[in-house]
Amino acid sequence: MLNNLTNFFNLIKGKMMKTTPEPDDLIILGTKDSRYNGGYKPTGIKVSDFTSGLQGDRLVAGTREVVLTDNGGDAELTFNAGTAVIQTSSSGADLFIRTLTGDDIILESGDDIRLQGDQGTYDAEAEGGDINLFAGNGSDGNTANAGSGGDIRIEAGAAGNSISGSQGEGGFVTIEAGYTTASGLPGGSINLYPGNSDSNIYGDVVISGNFTWEFSTRNASLLFPAVTLATLPTAVSVPGARAMIADSSVAASGNFGAIAATGGANIVPVFSDGVDWLIG
Fold first, then answer.
1. Global pTM?
2. Which of 2, 160, 176, 252 has the maximum number of C-beta atoms within 10 A of its C-beta?
3. pLDDT digit string (tens) for 5-17?
4. Alpha-carbon gap, residue 130 to 134, rounded angstroms
């Protein structure tokens, strides 16, 4: 055994090591044999035989970390038929899937892709798991300009095209809040908030296209923020639009259809006839 170890260290010292073995190369093994001096009999196995004996459809780690690396190419982890589960081993251990240097993460399925929070524990009055989508922050800068924040986009699939059959329909986007069985309480709310700035200027919430408004609320009210007439777009650009101004020169009563003018502190509703903003 001592001679075997000495020969092994001599190989390392002489830099007689290969980084890429050939199929017919031998791998030195110590075969368990109580009859042999030291308990292990020196032997070997060809690289081709060693690799063919591995379990090709399973990757088992003796430690708690499995690392797939590549040299400028793709790393693939393939599962046989059945369910594939990637999970942490204990409670409180987070699971991160990340790329380096801004590369993309693409989830692609032959069927559905579902993101689902965990169900609350029975009889524990535990909230169901949340699903949060956060875009990344832009880069800070010293001499360089700061980067913009990342976008979040939800887009349904385009319809397929048929040469001789009927055409498909574009996918729907549905946002629905949660249901409750509690009597007298509303279901979950849907909130759309534009971003704010240091100057307390909000971005826009834009809904465009052909759509139908349906309101069934507890107070049946729409809140139009009262702004100055000058902040509204030109009436020519938004025919049929409605708004609320806070600097009308006259009150709304008795002035329906009059062209809105500034110079006062009257809060009045206005609408665009495609030419002017009119009170009403």
1. 0.54
2. 252
3. 666 667 667 777 7
4. 12
